[in-house]
Amino acid sequence: MDDANDDSAEDGDFVCLPISVPSLPTSAFDPLALAGETPKAVQEQTASLNGQVIVNFATSAVEEFMLAQREREEYKAS
Q1: DSSP code of 27?
Q2: Domain extent listing, the chain
Q3: Cβ proximity of 32 and 45 under 8 Å
Q4: Could you give the residue ranges of the DSSP H alpha helices within 1-78?
């Protein structure tokens, strides 16, 4: 099996070509601006965002339940 790999390398099937990679920006991508904050501020902001996600989920679930309940009542009435 090693002989097969050696043969293909000798045939020139594998060629290493240099590639140019653009330099990365010096500033990191930080859409929430957390890099300049203290760890405690980051924790507080994360907790706030988590709370908002939970409230949005609960609100959506209640709205979906109420809509389904209304549709069931309309179906029973017809």
Answers
A1: S
A2: 38-78
A3: yes
A4: 2-10, 39-77
Q: Rounded to an integer, what distance in angstroms lies between the CA atom of residue 74 and that of residue 32?
A: 45
Distance CA 71, CA 65 (A): 10
pTM given for the model: 0.50
Q: Which two tokens stand for residue 56?
A: 């949005």
Structural tokens at position 69: 């309940």
Q: Tell me: the pLDDT tens digits for 34-63? A: 788 899 998 998 999 999 999 999 999 999
Which amino acid is residue 13, in one-letter code? D
Q: CA-to-CA distance for 50 and 56, rounded, in angstroms?
A: 10
User: 34: which 2 tokens?
Assistant: 């957390």
Closest CA to 32 of 19, 46, 20: 46
